[in-house]
Write a structure and sequence with these properties.
Elements: E1 3-8, H1 20-29, E2 34-38, H2 45-58, E3 63-69, H3 76-83, E4 89-94, H4 96-99, H5 107-120, E5 123-126, H6 136-143, E6 151-153, H7 158-171, E7 175-178, H8 185-194, E8 200-201, H9 211-216, H10 225-239, H11 243-249
Parallel strand pairs: 1-2, 2-3, 3-4, 4-5, 5-6, 6-7, 7-8
Helix pairs in contact: 3-5, 7-8
Length: 250
């Protein structure tokens, strides 16, 4: 069983069509049973989120909805209230590199969004790892004030912040990490050596990275069976409340 917690859907800028067939084919080829998916591109944030809701409605067994918000937009809190009410949406992503902002500077819009997430049990995923807009510590400003929310740091903090991210996640109960994009063996070995098994989630970063390569690196990390189970499905199933459903399939 594999749950991919970090994936997007490709969009053709010429035809304006999303490649759903490719998304599902990649899952089948790599034996991924469920995938958390976000639309990074589209006519508007609202249209992107609506597409994800419809996509999950069409493929509820395979896909889990992740909305995205841009806190620089005045409509951000209202869009959060709207889209996070959709039962298909279980995760919210903030992508400070894609949208170009420093998270700690946008409290006026981010705070009300996190209050909605806390009320509705939405998981919060944050992009990290490429420059001063994407430092994990910037999100500590929020995770410390919303201790009942689960914050998921994408890419293990990335190439810029991986080692410090391991210490952050270890010392704060409401932080987790996805393994997406991280390819350096040394921080990966350190992470799996230092972090509790309940702290990490598999992510492919599809289609920006190859899913088969995202899986291949675990062949040389010598993870225990328990670590693999927590990485690939147990942790995701726990925080997504899919345990009963998964147990029925296994």
């Amino acid at each position: 069983m594999i749950i991919d917690f970090q994936a997007y859907i490709r969009r053709d800028f010429k035809t304006k069509e999303y490649d759903v067939a490719e998304l599902l084919r990649d899952m089948e080829e790599n034996q991924i049973q469920k995938r958390v998916v976000t639309a990074l591109e589209g006519r508007s944030i609202q249209a992107q989120n609506d597409f994800i809701v419809k996509l999950v409605q069409d493929y509820p067994r395979q896909l889990i909805g992740c909305a995205i918000l841009n806190p620089k937009e005045d409509s951000c809190p209202a869009e959060a209230a709207r889209i996070l009410a959709a039962p298909e949406i279980k995760v919210l992503e903030f992508h400070s590199l894609e949208h170009g902002y420093r998270p700690e500077k946008l409290q006026f819009h981010i705070d009300p969004v996190l209050e909605i997430c806390q009320e509705r049990g939405i998981l919060v995923k944050v992009f990290t790892g490429q420059g001063f807009y994407t430092m994990p510590e910037q999100w500590m400003f929020y995770s410390k004030r919303f201790p009942n929310l689960t914050f998921i740091i994408e890419h293990f903090g990335g190439s810029d912040f991986s080692y410090g991210t391991i210490d952050l996640v270890k010392s704060h109960e409401n932080l987790m990490v996805t393994t997406s994009y991280e390819t350096e063996m040394q921080p990966l070995k350190m992470a799996f050596g230092k972090l509790p098994e309940e702290k990490y989630l598999f992510g492919s970063n599809y289609p920006l990275n190859f899913t088969d390569l995202a899986l291949m690196k675990y062949n040389i990390l010598n993870l225990s069976q328990s670590q693999k189970e927590h990485l690939f499905y147990k942790n995701a199933s726990r925080i997504l409340k899919l345990i009963e459903e998964l147990e029925n399939k296994l």
